[in-house]
């Protein structure tokens, strides 16, 4: 049996999915994609899990598609056919997903980072949309990346394939935060701690709201948002949160220390 390339651990409501294929820079091989998908589904299905963190071993977060596999595969069997479903599952996860990068991401790896709700990295990490330099198009990852980037920056970086810094990745909207390597664990924990304070159903609904196309008519938008707001104020979760605030205690979904 092949050694597992992706691991899932869980502690205090935080599920950590770790890419562990450093020999090929955590490239998106068929095995790694399959295990990442399965662990993601398990974390989403686990009611005890509140937040999901995507982590990695080795110096590189993810180098993109496994080009050795791609060379041996036909046009209909290069991983791109299943990769969209993986990106979509991360993007649509009802639980917040945080990408934690101690090192670089390239191509499909950047697509994964963009699919996450929050992304933090060591300030030494670098990024590149390197597809055009090997004669292919960053088509699939554009679905998750383009909503994050400023248009002018997207044109430049997609067309040139230039490597860019963590600082620039923050400036153009790809990342939330870039910190010194020794502060990466603490910065990730800062985000996961904040995310764990939200009501599980409220977080899922807020994610769905953020993804929702906005109506062109403001009145229609207000009507829909008023109904969403009123439903949650009246919900069991909303009422528990309101009572907890009034009673100066933690709501039931927050781990009690």
From TrEMBL:
<keyword id="KW-0456">Lyase</keyword>
<dbReference type="InterPro" id="IPR051683">
    <property type="entry name" value="Enoyl-CoA_Hydratase/Isomerase"/>
</dbReference>
<comment type="similarity">
    <text>Belongs to the enoyl-CoA hydratase/isomerase family.</text>
</comment>
<dbReference type="Pfam" id="PF00378">
    <property type="entry name" value="ECH_1"/>
</dbReference>
<protein>
    <submittedName>
        <fullName>Enoyl-CoA hydratase/isomerase family protein</fullName>
        <ecNumber>4.2.1.17</ecNumber>
    </submittedName>
</protein>
<dbReference type="GO" id="GO:0004300">
    <property type="term" value="F:enoyl-CoA hydratase activity"/>
</dbReference>
<dbReference type="InterPro" id="IPR001753">
    <property type="entry name" value="Enoyl-CoA_hydra/iso"/>
</dbReference>
<dbReference type="InterPro" id="IPR014748">
    <property type="entry name" value="Enoyl-CoA_hydra_C"/>
</dbReference>
<dbReference type="InterPro" id="IPR029045">
    <property type="entry name" value="ClpP/crotonase-like_dom_sf"/>
</dbReference>
């Amino acid at each position: 049996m092949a050694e597992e390339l992706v691991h899932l651990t869980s502690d205090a409501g935080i599920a950590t999915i770790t890419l562990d294929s450093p020999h090929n820079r955590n490239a998106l091989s068929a095995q790694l994609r399959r295990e990442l998908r399965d662990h993601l589904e398990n974390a989403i299905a686990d009611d005890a899990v509140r937040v999901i963190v995507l982590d990695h071993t080795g110096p590189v977060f993810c180098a993109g598609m496994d080009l050795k596999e791609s060379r041996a595969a036909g046009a209909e069997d290069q991983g791109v056919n299943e990769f969209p479903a993986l990106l979509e599952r991360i993007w649509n996860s009802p639980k917040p997903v945080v990408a934690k990068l101690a090192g670089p991401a390239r191509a499909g790896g950047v697509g994964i980072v963009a699919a996450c709700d929050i992304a933090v990295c060591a300030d030494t990490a670098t990024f590149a949309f390197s597809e055009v330099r090997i004669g292919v198009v960053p088509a699939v990852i554009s679905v998750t990346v383009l909503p994050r980037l400023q248009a002018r920056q997207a044109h430049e970086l997609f067309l040139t394939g230039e490597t860019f810094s963590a600082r620039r990745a923050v400036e153009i909207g790809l990342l939330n935060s870039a910190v010194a390597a020794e502060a990466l664990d603490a910065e990730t924990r800062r985000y996961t701690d904040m995310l764990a304070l939200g009501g599980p159903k409220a977080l899922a609904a807020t994610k769905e709201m953020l993804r929702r196309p906005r109506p062109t008519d403001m009145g229609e938008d207000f009507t829909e948002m008023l109904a969403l707001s009123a439903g949650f104020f009246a919900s069991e979760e909303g009422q528990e949160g309101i009572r907890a605030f009034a009673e100066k205690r933690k709501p039931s979904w927050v781990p009690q220390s």
